[in-house]
């Protein structure tokens, strides 16, 4: 597991209080012929969903102090195109339905409380 993945499991995910609602966006980019897509998001639901995906490679975390606690407010990473699925429209249009959970929340809690998680991470923004 990468150091950024460990860092992401250690910190809480929160809304960035400095961003307006229209600035809390999710961007998915797929370059022609590529087998991975780049995803950047500032939506807490999307951040949690992506971090729960074992295939999601964390490239950078956006960390900000929220109410005195360092929290993840954004993430940038890569996901294999094969992990994406476009199907029939859902009746429920909530963003949380886009990111299926794979038991990530339980694993997230277990690793977050682990003492084996490193405290310094290269490449993270504070």
Structure description:
By secondary structure, the protein is of the alpha+beta class. The chain has helices at 3-10, 44-51, 104-112, and strands at 12-13, 26-29, 36-41, 57-66, 69-80. Strands 1, 2, 3, 4 and 5 form a 5-stranded mixed sheet that branches. Strand 2 and strand 3 form a beta hairpin.
Count of alpha and pi helical runs: 3
Number of strands: 5
Shape: globular
* Share of β-strand residues: 25-35%
Mean pLDDT across every amino acid position: 76
Features:
single chain; 126 residues; alpha+beta; 3 helices; 5 strands; disordered C terminus
Topology:
Layout: H1 3-10, E1 12-13, E2 26-29, E3 36-41, H2 44-51, E4 57-66, E5 69-80, H3 104-112
Parallel strand pairs: 1-5
Antiparallel strand pairs: 2-3, 3-5, 4-5
Can you summarize this structure?
The protein has 126 residues and is an alpha+beta fold.
């Amino acid at each position: 597991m990468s150091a950024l993945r460990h860092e992401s499991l250690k910190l809480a995910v929160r809304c960035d209080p400095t961003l307006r609602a229209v600035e809390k966006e999710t961007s998915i980019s797929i370059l022609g012929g590529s087998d991975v897509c780049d995803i950047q998001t500032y939506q807490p639901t999307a951040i949690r969903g992506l971090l729960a995906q074992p295939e999601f490679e964390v490239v950078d975390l956006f960390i900000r102090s929220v109410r005195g606690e360092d929290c993840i407010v954004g993430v940038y990473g890569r996901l294999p195109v094969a992990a994406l699925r476009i199907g029939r429209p859902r009746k429920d249009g909530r963003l949380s339905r886009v990111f299926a959970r794979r038991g990530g929340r339980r694993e997230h809690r277990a690793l977050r409380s682990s003492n084996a998680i490193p405290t310094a991470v290269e490449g993270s923004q504070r």
